[in-house]
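User: Here's a chain of 432 residues. Predict its fold as tokens.
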Amino acid sequence: MWGSALAGDVYDVPVVVEDPLTKMVLNALSQHPMFNENDLPLQTTSTVFIKEDLRKREFPKNGDGWLETYWGKDADTIIRECRKMRRHDKANRDEYDETIGLVRQLKAMEVEATINNLSWAEGMESVIKQMGLSDRSLKALRKFGESRSVSLQKACHQFLKANTVLQMLNDKVDWNEDDQQSWVDATQMQKDARKMWRSVLHQVDTLNKAEQDALYFAAEELQAHGHLSSRELLRRGSDTLDRNMTAQRMGALLKMYGEELNIFKSTSRGDYVLLGRDGFIIKDIWAYMAGSLDSDGSIFISERGDPRVTFVASGDSGKQLCEDLHKATGCGRLVTDQKVSRNTKKSVHRLIFSRKDDIRRVLKATLPHMMLKTTQARAMLSYVDENDSMRKQELYRLVTFSNWKDHTVKANGLLDKWGIDADTIGAYAEGL
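Assistant: Prediction complete.
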């Protein structure tokens, strides 16, 4: 009998299940030394599927394929290197040939998984493959296959229509002048469909060389140094970029085309950040969080006296950022996919710090990098350690007023409610 201490482990279960009961049974059975997943009595209605037969397969959010993710190189590069080594190591030629075959097999599986992950691809698989699936196109298809599906489907249907005409013509023995013209038109339609496919997936190719150079330069800088503003990117590229490039133009390019290079607008003072295979590339987590607090975050004390520090972001990239910050800090509470209103699909995501130890840790680390909310941060740090109730009330009012000081009506309303003036609030900040 196998060790009972191992029963229930899931790290080596070779199957994926959908219902809890089946999962519990298989978690236990899979620890037995004689267990073989190939002996499972699967039925077409079963909730059990062998992993190798899974239709859906996960890819990194930046669009990289499996080979790039786990080996850092695409299939073409690996095959090219294997061929080069094979020429110098002929004694192991068979091993290199076997490796090349396995890489090609894995690449074919990657292509199938990419196509199968598209909600609209059923029945169009062969057409999609004929449209041209380079590594670059596969990566773009994984990222934009759904958001640009209308134009991609239009290209596929145009290509399919051209193929149908050519197939009908090939079945004819004798062609007249109309048939010849139909062949010319269908061939051109195929070319136009492929061109539409490429332009939809690679919109950055429509830019001129100076604009493309600016985007690729930005991607390199963001990968090397973490989040940066468009103005800072321009400063760093003053000797490299086109002399007519401005911070405003750089910002517009990043906003419009940056996502194709995995560049996203961050929550940190309008900076930009690069999405890598394992999440957003942030070199200085506390500097980044300070910028996020200054721009879209909040330092807040409720009327009941509950302190809270919150980071806010929206959309899919915002969700990824909140998840990355939560993972990096190792504390806080993550709340995702909240709807702003019933009439919008846009979701809001929050990383909330409400425990005193978490608040101390976050604010002490971010305070040296803050620019706009230093008063609230210092007041909050004093508040969580203060025992005197009168002083806590002063700090509560200081934080609350500082949050609303730019909104005249709201700020004056608070002062009237408390029966004090702005100078009194200013005195509360002395000594912080």
